[in-house]
Amino acid sequence: MENKAWRDSTRRSLRRVLKEKIVSQANHLAGILDLDVALPHHYLPLQALARARGVDPQKYLRGLGCHKMAVCAPGEDTVTLAAQAAYRLLQRHPLARQRVGLCVVGTESGIDHAKPVSILVHGLLGLPHQCRTFDIKHACYGATAALQTALAWVQQHPKQLALVIASDIARYPRLSPGEPTQGAGSVAMLVHADSSPSLLSFPFSSGIHASHVHDFWRPNYNHTAIVDGKFSLQCYLAALKAAYLDFCEKNQQTPQPDFFLFHAPFPRMAHKAYRSLAPLLSPHNKHFSFLEEGLSSQVLPALWPNREVGNLYTGSLYLSLAGLREHLQPPHTSQHVAFFSYGSGSCSEFFLGKLHPSPRSHTPLRAILDARVPIDVPTYEAFCEQTLALETNQTSLPSLAPLPSQPFSFLGILNHKRQYRDNTNAAIRCA
Ligand code: CAA
User: Fold this and answer.
1) Which of 84, 244, 351, 403 has the smallest number of CB atoms closer than 10 Å to its CB?
2) Is the CB of 387 under 6 A from ligand 1?
3) Is 93 exposed, middle or buried (0-12, 13-18, 19+ CB in 10 A)?
4) 428, containing H or E segment
5) Helix (H) or strand (E) holding 145
6) How far is CA 64 from the centre of its chain?
7) Residue of 138, 263, 271, 362 marked active site
């Protein structure tokens, strides 16, 4: 009898705990708590590249919408950019570091066939040992896959935080049509499901589309990407339409976002994306002025940093998010934002987020862009050679001076181990 009473009471308390857990999970929608950006210290003005390549500069400036291209100098790689973005973010959230239980890097510029970028970042940042770390790769879709993984994970671990980092260096062969669409950079995001207010929450189901195509890829033996340029544009636009329609079907509604963020390998691609989506968004309004007005009010406010950085591959969409946050100075009301993430090969996702006003505590993106230093074409070409040499020669340059505001430097490879320096305490670490 006593046993039965004990069993009943245990069952009741278990049921109560379960119910509370479900209610608390429903109350705390997973979202992005905050984000930060790291960019290479140098950029190449595309006017200079056009002149050097004998191309009308208007092709790059107007035709592609690219004005500047971020260029990595020796000492900067996928790892240092990722660690720098996350370092900045954690400096603003000092209590967050010990709560990070998942660290995922979306990247297609990995530095080793076995070792992920994430474990190097984990080491440089001193993240907890009780932390899952791994990379996710699917071309420019990697960071979105990482973000969706993290959003699901924090729902199950609401006391912990996930660190999601998009980090890439876009490299095409010199003199190829892809050359002016290079770039580099990293965006780090803290993902949570606790009661603190989100910068961005995701109340809707995503639309998905996957299809095996050879539009853009990089074989293991290549340092630069191979791309079927015109075909890649067609694949992108076909995937956009399919993912959008899947979104509408899953959510039984047509989205009415305030802003659109598209993966931007070059800014004009976002224009093309919006124009191709417009007939589905508003089938009865075909006026050119309506389209152009929508473009300037719903797309351009997020696209301004992409014009000054170039392609970040998987970070490109999230650089636009940082651009939109900066555009919407507080106080502003919450805004619905549509995202289209495209990863060549291909996998893509159309999703909707709610962007909430956030007090400005981060370094403005404008200031990060303005702190960079322009270089000329011979210097860009020399940097490409030198960074490639550091990747392939078994040498290390411990005397390499840190670039301004760069917390970590890549020094080269010794005994097949990558060498990094923590410039915040001058310690050299082998990866
Ligand atoms: N003044 C103004 N505009 C000019 C001009 C001039 N003098 N000369 C050309 N243009 C315009 C062209 O009309 C064209 O615009 P539209 O597409 O609107 O007609 C634009 O400039 C580009 O000109 P081309 O199409 O002739 O350029 P291209 O063939 O030399 O290369 C590209 C363009 C194919 C995009 C090439 O840069 C490339 O291969 N880039 C890499 C691949 C890429 O970014 N693909 C995007 C989809 S895949 C993806 O998104 C994943 C990813 O991140 C890679």
Assistant:
1) 403
2) no
3) middle
4) strand 427-430
5) helix 142-156
6) 21
7) 263
C-alpha to C-alpha distance for 430 and 419, rounded to whole angstroms: 5
Tokens for 188, please give them.
Answer: 């780090």
Angle of helix 300-309 relative to helix 316-327, nearest 10 degrees?
130
pLDDT in tens, 408-420: 999 999 999 999 9
Regarding the beta carbon of 141 and ligand 1, being less than 6 Å apart is answered no
Distances (CA, A) of 50 to 58, 190, 232, 270: 9, 38, 23, 22
Angle subtended at Cα 289 by Cα 284 and Cα 292, rounded to the nearest 5 degrees: 100
- Quote the ligand 1 centre to 399 CA distance (angstroms): 41
Whole-prediction pTM? 0.93
* Per-residue pLDDT reduced to its tens digit, 343-399: 999 999 999 999 998 777 788 999 999 999 999 999 999 999 999 999 998 888 989
Tokens coding 189: 């995001």
What pairing do the DSSP bridges indicate for beta strands 200-201 and 31-38? antiparallel
Tokens of 36: 């930060």
